[in-house]
């Protein structure tokens, strides 16, 4: 009796295992498709992948004669803007690219068609998240290479700095991607997606210490920016690439790693909840 009862359980376990493995294989193959599709879209490549690199080049050349360090602390424009551009790249690759891309796929019926295929929602989102991770890594590597090779920016040599870079990057890219999925439900159509998403992304960059020294902003604007994750991701990247003396220029005088983890983690959880509640496979007016 026991042996007879065990057979359905074993068969069910094998089916579940096959289903999970099958989903993961589909998701992995979807990553390759998403990455290829991403780099075939010239507008996406420029405005999300290359845009931070272009800004880094412009700022580095335009302010090449200025010293952004303190007394006796030489810091070039390229070194100063590098961490902000890396953080902005996370926002562009995750929030902007994901929100616009999914909104367009929903509007033109792509999501509706995918919903009826064996791909499944889990494999679809594995593909999207994998694409954001890969393009974000390539973008960060390109920014660092340009800063080091073209402008002679000295990169950190301490392993602790690169460990900080790793966890801030992974936390940031995941949070931004999830928030991009949640934000994709806001535009009513694919045509309006860029008009809805880009202003949000642009404003966050201006108030979060990406283009302007955060301590130079009015105190009330610093408070507003501190609610959002980009301000903390920028500070995390600054702790990696800027001298430790720059910590004194933050409102608390330290790099606040606990707050970086806390605020970004809260947005990650909030993004997961919003994505779960608001995501739809068909457009609102369908």
UniProtKB/TrEMBL annotation:
Location of this chain's protein in the cell: Membrane
Domain of life assignment: Bacteria
Endpoints of the signal sequence: none
One GO term of the biological process aspect: response to antibiotic
Keyword Ribonucleoprotein assigned: no
Keyword Transmembrane helix: yes
Transmembrane segments: 45-66, 78-100, 121-150, 162-183, 195-216, 259-279
GO cellular component: ATP-binding cassette (ABC) transporter complex
GO molecular function, one term: ABC-type transporter activity
Name of the featured protein: ABC transporter permease
Main location: membrane
Keywords annotated in UniProt: Antibiotic resistance, Membrane, Transmembrane, Transmembrane helix
ABC transmembrane type-2 domain sequence ranges: 43-278
Membrane protein topology class: Multi-pass membrane protein
PROSITE patterns linked: ABC_TM2 (PS51012)
A Pfam family reported for this protein in Swiss-Prot or TrEMBL: ABC2_membrane_3
InterPro entries, per the entry: ABC-2_transporter (IPR052902), ABC2_TM (IPR013525), ABC2_TM_bact-type (IPR047817), ABC_2_transport (IPR000412)
């Amino acid at each position: 009796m026991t042996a007879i009862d065990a057979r359905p359980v074993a068969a069910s376990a094998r089916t579940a295992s096959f289903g999970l493995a099958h989903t993961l294989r589909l998701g992995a193959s979807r990553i390759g498709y998403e990455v290829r599709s991403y780099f075939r879209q010239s507008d996406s490549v420029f405005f999300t992948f290359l845009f931070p690199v272009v800004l880094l080049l412009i700022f580095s050349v335009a302010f090449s004669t200025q010293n952004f360090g303190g007394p006796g602390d030489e810091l070039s424009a390229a070194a100063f803007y590098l961490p902000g551009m890396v953080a902005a790249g996370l926002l562009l690759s995750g929030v902007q690219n994901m929100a616009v891309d999914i909104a367009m796929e929903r509007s033109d019926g792509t999501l509706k068609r995918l919903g009826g295929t064996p791909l499944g929602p889990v494999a679809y989102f594995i593909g999207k998240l994998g694409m954001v991770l890969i393009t974000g890594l390539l973008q960060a590597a390109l920014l660092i290479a340009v800063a080091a090779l073209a402008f002679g920016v000295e990169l950190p040599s301490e392993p602790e700095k690169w460990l900080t870079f790793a966890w801030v990057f992974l936390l940031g890219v995941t949070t931004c991607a999830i928030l991009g999925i949640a934000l994709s439900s806001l535009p009513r159509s694919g045509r309006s997606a860029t008009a809805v998403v880009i202003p949000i992304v642009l404003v966050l960059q201006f108030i979060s210490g990406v283009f302007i020294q955060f301590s130079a902003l009015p105190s009330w604007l610093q408070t507003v920016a501190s609610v959002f994750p980009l301000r903390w991701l920028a500070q995390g990247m600054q702790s990696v690439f800027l001298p430790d003396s720059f910590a004194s220029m933050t409102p608390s005088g330290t790099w606040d790693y606990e707050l970086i983890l806390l605020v970004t983690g809260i947005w990650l959880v909030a993004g997961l909840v919003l994505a779960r509640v608001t995501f739809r496979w068909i457009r609102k007016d369908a």
